[in-house]
Amino acid sequence: MDEPTQEQLEKSDKLEKRTIGGELRYYVKNIKEHWPVVVEDEPNAQGREAWFTPDGKFHATHEQLRRDAVVGGIV
Fold first, then answer.
1. What are the beta bridge partners of residue 15?
2. Would you say 34 and 74 are in contact if contact means Cβ atoms under 8 Å apart?
3. Could you read off the pLDDT of 3-19 as tens digits, one per residue?
4. pLDDT at 36
């Protein structure tokens, strides 16, 4: 799967644009919608975050979210 372009990230209604420490990031708005099993299996997973950087690279605060991101598209 190709990484999304910055234009795709900008247009996505599933992402929220934020600047963290001077770095532009596109955060996944609803973790539970994209990873319901992770949230149900791990009580504190709802507080986890996942985001893209403008170059299309995916990042997450939970290992399962990182693994699953390669399986399905979010943007």
1. 28
2. yes
3. 889 999 999 998 999 99
4. 66
